Amino acid sequence: MLSLDLHPIFRNNRDIDQSVRTFVFKAYSRGEGAVEIIPGKGTGRLKHHVLAYLNQKHMKRFCKPVVADSSNTGRVVVHFK
Fold first, then answer.
1. Is 72 left (phi over 0), alpha (psi -120 to 50) or beta?
2. Can you give the pTM of this predicted structure?
């Protein structure tokens, strides 16, 4: 499973959005079934931002409803339609 670690770019929301969008579109076009995004555990603010971004209308066209991984709170698994 492909993964994107957001730890190195967590300070700028624009860079985070760009990285997530590019990663998701590239994985979708390759035919991946699912990918993981790793915002880390921390305060949860970065994970909340990523979940909110993935649940926007333009991202929902590619992804099934996105929820955080219950077994690892520092990971978000994105399944494609």
1. beta
2. 0.89
Quick one: tokens of 66?
């996105």
- Per-residue pLDDT tens over the stretch 10-38: 678 888 999 999 999 999 999 999 999 99
Cα distance between residue 81 and residue 33, in whole Å: 8
Strand-by-strand arrangement of the 67-68 sheet: 2-5, 34-38, 76-79, 67-68
- DSSP state at residue 60: H
What are the structural domains, with CATH classification, of the chain? 2-79 (3.30.1370.110)
Question: Helix, strand or coil for residue 38?
Answer: strand
Take residue 49 and report the two structure tokens written for it.
């931002």
Q: What is the DSSP letter of 13?
A: H
